[in-house]
Specification:
By secondary structure, the chain is of the alpha+beta class. The protein has 2 domains: about 70 residues, Winged helix-like DNA-binding domain superfamily/Winged helix DNA-binding domain (Arc Repressor Mutant, subunit A); about 180 residues, GAF domain (Beta-Lactamase). About 45% of the residues lie in helices and about 20% in strands. It is built from 8 helices and 9 strands. The protein has a 6-stranded antiparallel sheet. A 3-stranded antiparallel sheet has the order 1-3-2. A hairpin with a 6-residue loop joins β7 and β8. α2 packs across α3 and α4 runs antiparallel to α8. The longest helix has 27 residues. The chain is globular and about 55 Å long. This is Transcriptional repressor IclR.
Length: about 250
């Protein structure tokens, strides 16, 4: 999981890798012993122990009575503030996408080994919602997920695949790492990702990454396959790319 080789301050990278490993463990109890946490983050145990002492002192990580580690409560107000700022920026951008394209517009972030929807504006048409805010989905079979994975390097993609697997949700799901890598190469080349019935039959989604590598956000529109035609996708891509630029500008100015 370690991203320290990408540049920047190594100790900060490693500290954030520890926090990310604990976040990813949320679906499995949310706490890990030192050895497993260090292995998951790809950090030597002695180094992890030193960094965790600081994170615990600052409240970003807490150590339970059984000596296992979990996310600290200091993160709660940070998350609340970030969500509020994001909502202010995203609502208008997503609403404009709905006005232009008619379909539901979504904003998702990389949350450990999954994508989490953090903002949404429903489409104009009466329809069942395919996603909702707070819902986490697999990365390999969703438009936002592939847009997020395309921001990572091959080693990080392989690590996600090894940890989560590549389960087949439909007959269209990519279930092998070579196939996923090929799809991500196409995403990087074209600048957008698609989910054509890969997570749910009858649903199509087109998504673009927000910002460059390391930002960990994607914006999308989704709807029934019968309405999200090739013509709609052709119109959606530039609209989504413009929305991504607005989201980055709004985030930086928030």
């Amino acid at each position: 999981m370690s991203t320290a080789s990408g540049g920047g301050v190594q100790s900060l990278h490693r500290s954030l890798d520890l926090v990310a490993a604990l976040e990813a463990a949320g679906a499995h109890g949310g706490h890990l012993p030192l050895a497993e946490l260090a292995e998951t983050a790809g950090i030597p145990a002695a180094t992890a122990h030193r960094l965790l002492r600081t994170l615990v002192e600052r409240g970003y990580v807490r150590q339970r009575p059984d000596r296992r580690y979990a996310l600290g409560f200091r993160l709660v107000p940070l998350g609340t503030t970030a969500t509020a700022l994001l909502g202010e920026v995203a609502e208008g951008v997503l609403a404009d996408l709905v006005d232009e394209l008619g379909e539901t517009a979504n904003l998702a972030v990389l949350a450990g080994p999954r994508a989490e929807y953090v903002a949404q504006v429903p489409g104009r048409y009466a329809m069942r919602m395919f996603t909702q805010v707070g819902h986490r989905v697999a990365l390999h079979c969703t438009g936002v997920g592939k847009a997020l994975l395309a921001q990572l390097d091959d080693a990080a993609v392989a690590a996600v695949a090894a940890r989560e697997g590549l389960p087949g949700h439909t007959a269209h799901t990519l279930t092998t790492l070579p196939a996923l890598r090929d799809a991500l190469a196409l995403v990087r080349e074209r600048g957008y990702a698609e989910d054509q019935e890969e997570q749910e039959l009858g649903v199509r989604c087109v998504a673009v990454p927000v910002g460059g590598a390391g930002v960990g956000m994607a914006v999308s529109v989704s709807g029934p396959l019968t309405r999200v035609t090739d013509d709609v996708v052709e119109r959606a891509v530039p609209a989504l790319q413009a929305a991504a630029v607005r989201l980055v500008a709004g985030r930086d100015g928030a």
